[in-house]
Fold these 2 entries.
Entry 1:
Amino acid sequence: MEGLEVERAGIQLNERGRGIAVNEHMRTNVEHIYAIGDVTNIMQLAHVASHQGITAIDGILGESGGMHYTAIPNVIFTSPEIASVGLLEDECKQQGMDYSVSKVSFASNGKALTMNEPEGFIKLIRDNRSQKIVGGSIIGPDASSLISTLTLAIANELTEQQITHTVFAHPTTGEVIHEAAFGLSIGALHQA
């Protein structure tokens, strides 16, 4: 934010003074000024900034909605890839949530085996009160792509039953999501 001189425009900073304060529509305290991305110091991820931009445009056009941060995917491009979205198990414990966890290994996934990448797992977390999926982590092949499916499930408050009633293509690494959802009810069908 160096050199922007936002205080000259009357723009307020967030409570930490390290970013521009915005509402859920990305509008600052100055009605016609919006801020997105790193200058807001909310989440410094390119995909968050892009979505904040869409949210700002929607706000300018008077459309309802707003920016929500409960289903933001995080990806680490290592080998194997690591990705997560929603709540972590430690956060569920801290909140005193009644939750269940299902963990399925990629060693039971036909596509991962044919790719010679059986290392890793998927973990799904379900809020037992609402039955909704609230978190997920993936370490393994295609994690950066698979996390989008979990993001969609969490953002749309899907239950494990809605996921198990969805047909997943075979053979794909995406089937580990299906298996983990079954793990929250009747048990994974192909657990190694």
Entry 2:
Amino acid sequence: MSKCPCGSKQRLDKCCEPILLGKRIAKTPEQLMRSRYSAYAMGHYEYVLNTYAAEPRAQLNVLELAQGNQETQWVHLDVVHIQGRQVEFKAYYRINDALFILHERSDFIKENGRWVYLTGQIITSGQLTV
């Protein structure tokens, strides 16, 4: 079995896959953020949509999420800092042969007993020189 894309070094079936398949829910904001990263990396855009808080989710749809990531290959995730319901991370991705970074501080809330993504503050975003 392959390793989980979220960078936990665990097997996919022991880490994010049960969350992505709805067999269990994310217990912490970090678990939710990692599962959302894995969903982006694996093309599970319905899961991504369903893990937005109600207000931002109403402005999105699965097709837009998929089209926005059509040429994106997610390659690495670093969790930088966790404080309460906030998770800071760096996500690295490729578009064609160029490497990019998204450094974000994300806010999560609980809705109906589940952690969901509310909003994020982008710290840095752009192409890296290799």
